[in-house]
Amino acid sequence: MDFSVIGCGRWGTFIAWYLHSLGYQGALYGRAGSLHLQRLVQTRTNGMVTFDEGVEFTSDLSGALAAELICISVASQALRSVMAQVRALGPVGKTFVLCMKGIEVESGLRLSQIAKEAVGAHNDVAVWLGPGHVQEFARGIPNCMVIDAEKEEVKSRLVAALSGGLIRFYYGTDLIGSEIGAAAKNVIGIAAGMLDGFGLSSLKGALMARGTREIARLIRSLGGSELSAYGLCHLGDYEATVFSPYSHNRRFGEAFVKGEAYDELAEGYYTAAALMRLSQRKEVELPICRAVYQVLYEQAEPRETLDGLFLRSIKREF
Length: 318
Description:
Layout: E1 2-6, H1 10-21, E2 25-29, H2 35-43, E3 55-58, H3 61-64, E4 69-72, H4 79-88, E5 95-98, H5 111-119, E6 124-129, H6 134-138, E7 143-149, H7 152-162, E8 167-171, H8 175-197, H9 204-221, H10 238-243, H11 248-258, H12 268-282, H13 287-297, H14 302-310
Parallel strand pairs: 1-2, 1-4, 2-3, 4-5, 5-6, 7-8
Antiparallel strand pairs: 6-7
Helix pairs in contact: 4-5, 8-9, 8-11, 8-12, 8-13, 12-13, 13-14
């Protein structure tokens, strides 16, 4: 099996390295002018993983689409634009794997829905989700992740092809729950960072328990299984998001309440807005996600908002 990875940021670059470590040949695509791509061409490393000659770096999208397996790792709000470019080139018989987490803000669509709209008639679409940081994988620290798709055959094929000593893949059983859970955990990560910023890290236990419960309700309202919120894609990813020093979303939340600049992509910022649209559409209360949204988008006072969220009287836990 040959592969290509569309997106040469930190995660996309790691995926290309990981697939090559399994013995596959392939290419890593970046748009023309990408500083990430230029650095890789010049040095064959991003500072965390290093490539031998078995991986090609390219800005030719048509050439990248010649591969059998096409992994995509771009910013969630850019996926529709990328898939429009892919669709225009007419790929047939390919397997697209979305290695990214998010929900489109304007439409409230899951990312696999966007990809399927673009190429699904003659291609397969799957998602690669779950906990893991490049920094830890690059040091040889293993983790468990999830492959999910509508077709059982696609999941079976990908789990068999992509599992290795560094990543053990599980079969997802609920595409809706897997994607919503994976996206929403980034919003919980921002809330965790805000708690860290105020020295309230002891409240992370309440954050995790209540956050999982509200996301379970949302997943059910969308037609998925509540139990998915307690799997690897949501609760199982909390350690890597709520506590890890590598989590962009946790670090963003902490920097935000401290009034510090933060330049990395924090997908939870956009997901918070998307979840509010889904909350209104499905009439599901999401207190933690709403609090994060109010702080980020409505200039609510952060400490007051968090105090009101966690210190108010609660009659029932569930």
